[in-house]
């Protein structure tokens, strides 16, 4: 009957989650927060529909592994190499400063230096699962602040292993230096071994599996690579999630990357949702009310402290203020790996049980608040960006300083130098139309300068940058960046600076049309719309339909979208 208990718990989780998330969706509550709330309701400290959290945690860990595997698939090792600056510099600054700040605050409250450092470990870690899920949902993984967050999160995950190994040293338990070095060496060896072996073995292995043309076998193989690598690294002392992330990077280097992503996506969404439910099950509303004072004090200190730390890191890295603020808001919570650190320390006297319980409550509440914070972050960043005194104080206006005052007239400003921006620049140059390029991606700007393009590193949501680019004398402003919130802010900034300028914006989804029109865009190019037109044109042409009929159908698509964009749903 034991297996029926597991099945019953699984049914309870899914049923309550569906009801709660559906209801809260109508109130515009983010899905992640809704899943956490569902966990509070069904957990042993809620209505006790499920009493054994351990069984749920096993499923939840699979969810985290699949989430990190999916992120690894989207990145690839080559792309991760390009994130070395946020990983090495940003990660070191964020983790180091977080531990340092927490240490001094904890010492002020009378805690020992060992406990202060350990609490610094707990506070320094942010939630990889929630932050990456938020970036994925909002389509901001490739945005400048998305890359900063991702790099810092990767560094944090790498730090979990040495933090865990440091616990015996901090607690005074017997643990020789050679044992610590051996554990670190074993962890490093397994990570390097997995990457090297997988790069040599996995592509050939997937070729053999794909040759069978058995889709179910391919799906099983992908799950084996993900879960197997995660288990292997976990057994070696490295976090399970990091192992899954490495597995994703390895598969991303093969030609089966997109197929693997499509096969894993359904599993990932279900199991990740269960992870968020399991987080909520750890929280008790009664415990919060009994200790509301200390919990709220610690929560405020954590959110404010981590926000300031990332802002300082952004200042040192010379990030534009808007990017630094967005990254700071996104990384202000305490993460799921902090639970692992607290659990590992239970056999020591580093922190008392009441303090550990308060820290767990603070972590969960901060995770619950993160989706709301991410929704408000663009508005906060826009407001802070207009505070010129703060810009000068923090000295994070590198993007503005890099842009020289333009002397052009009747030119086109290209915001973004990805594929679309490059092609537009080439076309304008060929037609003799003057233009200037601005982008927050330093690699794109370096590439543009190597080609002799008039390019500047700058934030197109900044009034000052647009003014320096001569927007009041420009013929048009074209926005082709992968940050939906920044696109809307850039439109508003441009419309304020030059009310009569023609603004063209590109977006991925049809649901973005109305907000961008309200912001002041004259023309909106939608990737979904263009894809639909291309597909219809190609298929009708293949079916030998007359060109006149094809034109009628494509015009119908445009008319349907223009008249009722809100009634067309994107999945």
Explain how this protein is built.
The chain folds into 2 domains: 2-392, Na+/H+ antiporter like fold (Up-down Bundle); 399-567, NAD(P)-binding Rossmann-like Domain (Rossmann fold), CATH 3.40.50.720. It has helices at 2-26, 31-42, 53-81, 84-108, 113-124, 128-138, 144-171, 177-211, 215-235, 240-252, 257-281, 285-290, 292-316, 321-330, 337-344, 353-385, 388-394, 398-402, 419-430, 442-450, 463-468, 484-497, 513-519, 527-542, 547-563; strands at residues 412-415, 435-439, 455-457, 476-479, 502-507, 523-526. Helix 4 (84-108) runs antiparallel to helix 5, helix 8 runs parallel beside helix 10 and helix 13 (292-316) packs antiparallel against helix 14 (321-330). It is built from 25 helices and 6 strands. A 6-stranded parallel β-sheet has the order 3-2-1-4-5-6, sandwiched between helices. Strand 5 (502-507), helix 23 and strand 6 form a beta-alpha-beta unit. The chain is 72% helix and 5% strand. It is mainly alpha-helical.
Pick out its properties.
mainly alpha, Rossmann fold, Na+/H+ antiporter like fold, six-stranded parallel beta sheet
**CATH-assigned fold name of the largest domain:** Na+/H+ antiporter like fold
CATH architecture of the largest domain: Up-down Bundle
Query: What's the average pLDDT?
Result: 81
Secondary-structure-derived class: mainly alpha
Helicity level: over 70%
First CA to last CA: what distance? 39 Å
Query: How many strands appear in the DSSP assignment?
Result: 6
Radius of gyration: 25 Å
Count of individual domains = 2
The largest β sheet comes out as:
6 strands, parallel
Strands in their spatial order, largest beta sheet: 3-2-1-4-5-6
Q: What's the CATH first level of the largest domain?
A: Mainly Alpha
Helical segment count = 25
Oligomer: single chain
- The geometry reads as globular
Proportion in β-strands: under 5%
Note poorly predicted spans: 395-402
